[in-house]
Structure formats: structure tokens, C-alpha cells
Amino acid sequence: MRATSCITILLLLLALARGGILPVKPSETRDVINLDGLWYFTTDANFVENIEEADDLGQGLNLMPVPSSYNDIATSLILRDHVGSVWYKKYFFVPGSWSSKRVWIRFGSVCYNASVIINGASVVNHSVGHLPFATEISRHLNYDIENNVLVEVNNILDRYTIPQGYVDQVGGGKLHQFVKFDFFNYAGIDRPVYLYTTNDAYIDDINIDIKLNGTTGLVTYSTEIVNPKGLKQQINILDKNGHLVAVGSGKSGTLEVENAKLWWPYLMRPDPGYLYTFEVILKQNDTLIDHYKQRFGIRSLYYDNDTFTINNENIYIRGFGRHEDSDIRGKGLDLPLIIRDHHLIKWIGANCYRTSHYPYAEEIMDLADELGIMIIDEVPSVVTANFSKTLLSNHKQAWSEMYQRDKNRPSVIMWSIANEPRVTIPASGDYFKQVVQHVKTFDTSRPITLANMYSYDIEYSGKYLDIIGVNRYEAWYVNPGQIDGIVPRIKSLITGWRNLHNKPVLFTEYGADVEEGLSTLPSFIWTEEYGNDLITEYFKAFDQLRSQPWFVGEMIWNFADFKTDTDIRRVGGNKKGLFTRNRQPKAAAFVVRKRYWALAHQLYNATLPKDLELYISDSYNHNNNNYKDEL
């Protein structure tokens, strides 16, 4: 174990650029109170002062669970389709022992605009959904007695917000929110709320950069300490079992982890998702001032015009787009659902998903780190249009906040800067050039993509990206019913992208809506059979493309059915999921499972599950080794 004097200037600049947003973790120096639970709630501004008496939902019930979206909790359209502000209020107790500490409040996410008031004093405003924010509230608290927090949440989206929308008064009366994106505009306090303490001096941020030198992991770090005068930092790296493998000191440096265990994606190695712990101990003489631990993985990424590798091995992505979406809770943090989802992700043999179309909860990202699931981390910019300087500034801010939260995660292998933006508009070229330049200022280790629905010959963004992301619904939105045209059209589209830009290509979306249990022979649109027929034609195209290392993966849309706004195309929501909204498999899930496991077996020698094929008869060939030939 030894430290070198190497200092990464970029990490130091990043640490100085903005405050940290480290996850809330209790320690010897940090106390934590969780404010989740039932909060008073109203949609009526007239009841804000006496919210406990509000009855604007008409049931004599003015409580709202946190975390959760509010839209589906009640029984009326008034709340589900509400446009504008709502108010949450919570009473809480702060012990007297906290009076000598700095006290902070942290929200995992509020969608979308949040104004937070503590005991009548405004303390923070935040305008990006799906991302955390925090502020110190020490001077506004009463100790050893009751306090309250009031949060105004506004869900209005306009041409300058990320994502965009517009509001209109239909017939001069009720406000209606209109959006271009194809998922329900859930709102509310949808992730956990914490109070926590620090000392006057504390660890504000940690930056970690990884490189490999043979079997040695080079961990270059920098820390940001508030009020660091007279303090000393000890840095420890611990392995998965808590054993010390490297030590250092000071606010920056490089530590060497010999014989490093690498972070590998699921099914690429028998022990995926290996995590180390980066530990910072802050002391004044012998007095402990702060103590913080953050898990990280040792892995390398490399990309050029022809390849995309992890730990010097080619990546082939098997995955899907997803949504944070469930019955009743909407986009609210749902721990049982999260665990169920990751059981299904492993069952189906996927190794990656895109956080379509916004950053997902930290609890979800933690699981991805631990399980070896690769993440394409997407900023909440969807169907971006009406390009302007104000929108560009907000877009950069949203990405910066996402980066600040997720920069040290080994699971994050790629940044997605938008989904289906209107890149046929000439102004989009310079717009996304500037977004890419902004991202590269902070991070050059991960490639940049966006999910593009247009053809390569009519758009302006591709030349600025590292990896081309392609959304195409052949035989569904385009040429519906023409399954026999999928293979030639998809091959032509993808090779066109490649020939024009000479960059790796990733298929980010394809699929068809399927109504669970709807069945016909021969197949017909919306049936289980049609869904299977369609995706297997895509498989044929992908197999002809993936002989080239520049074709780096396939991602079906979507992992599970999800709610949308009211639309004649949507029967209870978007039904392109491999699983239903309550996470039961459709017929296509079993087909994709065979595909993904077969790919993992062929490419990485993964052991196939015994239940992949059902017994038919003693004359039917169940030899799993045939998968290599079939592909």
C-alpha cells in the first residue's frame, strides 16, 4: 500500500466549482432524522396558513404520503390533473443536542419547482426535478420543541424548463398542462426527506477518478472540506470485506490498490459489481471532526470511433429503457418495487438500462452499482425544442446536478443529454454542441449520447456525440404491420449512421405496444404474437450488425408498462413493456430472456439458467450449447 504525489488538476477544479450533494449517511459525527411519513397537504392557497383544516379534496382527508407522487392518491380528477402549486407541511422535533451542530435539510427529489419554508422563514428554492438539493437550516430551528417545514411544489412546465411543456386555460377556465413527452407528468415530494447534522467543519464533497495500470487500480481523489484550517485528513480504501488495502492523507492524491478486483457488469464475470469503500476521516489533533464513507468501483472505460470497452473488453449492451412508475405511488420511491425490478432485470439477463427520461432515485443507482448493472444516465430533457439561451442554461444546470450526484458511480458508463430532441431544427446543432462541450468540461471518461428518433441525413446533433443512440419503431409507428421490412430497413438505417459519422452506434429504443393476453393466429397488431414476431425480426438485424465492434448494443422499449397522459393511442398507458405495470411478464419477456442469456453465454460464457427451456419430449433437442450456433 503506498500513495503517490500525483494530483489531478481537473478533480481539484471540479471540487471548487460547486458544493457537494453527498448522500445522507449517519456516522459518529452525523446524526440523521428521516422526515418521511404523512404530511399535511392542500391544493388550495387559502388553506396554507391553516393547512391542518384543509378539505379541498372533499373526503375530510388532508394527508399525503412522502415519498410519493400526489396525483393518484385521491379519487378525483381535481388532484390527478392538478396544474400549479400544492403545499405540504410537516411538524418535527429537533433535540437540544443538535443546537451546537450545523443542521441541514435534504430532499431526494421534488417535481418540479420547490420552495421550502422552515418555521416561517424561506430557506431554499429548487427548480430541477428528479435530483437532490439541500440547505443549512440551523438558525431557523427551535431546539427541544416542535418545528415545522412547509413546501410549495409547483408542477408547471414551460418552454424554458427541463423538461419542457406549456400551460393553457381551456375556455378561459381551468389550467391544463400540455407536454410532448409520452409519460404521465407526476409531481410531488417523490423521494426521501432528511434532516442531518455536521460539525462546523465537514466533508462537503468527494471526487474519485479511476485508471488501471496492469493489475493495479490507480485511485486519484480530491476532497472538498468546509472550514479546513487546522484539520488533517486520513484517507482509507477498504475492500468488500472491510479490509484496508490503501491509505493516504491530504485533500488530494493518488492511491494504488494492488491486485485490484475490478467492477464488472452482470454476467460478464462471475463476481459482478465489486465495490470498494473510500473513507475520509477528518481530525483536529486527536478529535474526530467528520467521518464519511462512499462506495466506488475500480473499472476502466475506453471509447473511440470503433469500440467501447470496459476493463479492456468490448461492451455489448443488452437492456431497455425504463421508467420510475407504479400504481398509486407514481414516481415516488417504492422500495418493494425496486427490489422486484432488479430481480426481473437479473432474471431476464439484461446488463444495462437507460434512466429514461430523468435521473433515477439514489436507492436505484446504489443497486445498479452493487449488482453490476450498467447505467446510461439521462438528463430530464425530453422532446427538446424552442432552443434558447435560457433553455441551454437550464439544460446545463440539470446535467451538472446529475453529474454532481452520480460522478463517482461505476455503474454510470455513459451520459445521455436528451431523448428525442427536435434535432432537425438547424438551431439544435449549436445548442447540443454547447451541451456536449459543457459535459466534456467535467467528464471525458464517459462517452456522450442522445436518443435520436430522426434519420442520420436530416439532423444536426450526431457529429458532436461520442456514441450515436437510435430510436426507431419500424413496423409500429413507421410502416405499421410490415414486419418483413424490419431487417433491411434497420440495417440500412444503422449503417447510414455509421457511414456518415464513423462512430459507435447503440440501438436505444424499439418495440411495440402489446395488450396483455390479447392473442390471435396469425398475429395482428397489439397482440402478444405480433410483439414477438416484431422483436425477433429486430434480433435478426442486430445479429447481422453486431459482427462489427462499432455496433455496441440493443435496448428494447420498455422494461414495464407505464402511465401516460390521456391519448387515443394509449389504452391505460404505454403498453410496450416486457412486463405489466405490476411487474408480471408478458410473452415477449420470455423471448427477450432467451435472447439476452444466449448473448451472455456466447459473448462472455455465462452459465445458462436451467429453466430457460421447458421440457418438451425426449426427442426435442435441449442442448444449451446450441445457442451459440443459433445466434
How does this structure look, described?
With 631 residues, this protein is an alpha+beta fold. It has 3 domains: 3-20 and 202-298, Immunoglobulin-like; 32-198, Galactose-binding domain-like (Jelly Rolls, Sandwich); 302-630, Glycosidases (TIM Barrel), CATH 3.20.20. The protein has 10 helices and 33 strands. Strand 18 and strand 19 (244-249) form a beta hairpin. Helix 5 runs parallel beside helix 6 (427-442) and helix 8 (528-545) runs parallel beside helix 9 (587-604). The radius of gyration is 25 Å and the shape is globular. The model is unreliable at 1-18 and 627-631 (pLDDT under 50).
Largest sheet: 8 strands, parallel, barrel
Q: Judging from the principal axes of the Cα atoms, what is the shape? A: globular
Count the domains: 3
By CATH, the topology of the largest domain is TIM Barrel
CATH homologous superfamily heading of the largest domain: Glycosidases
Report the sheet-strand fraction.
Answer: 25-35%
Instruction: Name the strands of the widest sheet in spatial order.
Output: 26-27-28-29-30-31-32-33
- Helix content, binned percent: 10-25%
Q: Terminal Cα separation, in Å?
A: 46 Å
**What is the name of the CATH architecture of the largest domain?**
Alpha-Beta Barrel
Keywords:
Immunoglobulin-like, 631 residues, TIM Barrel, disordered N terminus, disordered C terminus, 8-stranded parallel beta barrel, Jelly Rolls, 10 helices, 33 strands, alpha+beta, 3 domains
